[in-house]
Amino acid sequence: MSAADIIDPLAAAVGVAMGLAAVPQVVRVLRLGHSSDLTPWTPLIIVVGAGIWTAYGIVHSLPEVIVGNGVGTALNAFLVAIILTQRRRSDAGRAV
């Protein structure tokens, strides 16, 4: 067994776990129905960074990089989308 046999799946698992860090914020925004106290910039920066790493993994055929960063890209993109959607709803509600 080589070091890569241990590190590769571990890297993928840690990448997925890091991507799942967005889940509590997603749940909170959906539960409360607003995102007024959250900035979209932090998850947007994560989307850009993780997206670049995902592309790197694709170009170099590194599934552990693709999986780990793909999850982070998707969940943080979803978080940005719900933050912005909730803000538009709040703004529309105030305009009435």
What do the pLDDT scores average to? 91
Spatial gap, N to C terminus: 65 Å
- Could you state the order of secondary-structure elements as H and E? HHHH
Whole-angstrom Rg: 16 Å
Oligomeric state of the chains in view: single chain
The secondary-structure class comes to mainly alpha
How many helix segments?
Answer: 4
Largest sheet, if any?
none
Please report the total strand number as a whole number: 0
Taken as a percent bin, the fraction of beta residues is under 5%
What topology does this entry show?
Elements: H1 3-19, H2 23-32, H3 41-59, H4 63-95
Helix pairs in contact: 1-4, 2-4, 3-4
Give a quick summary of the entry.
The protein has a domain at 34-96.
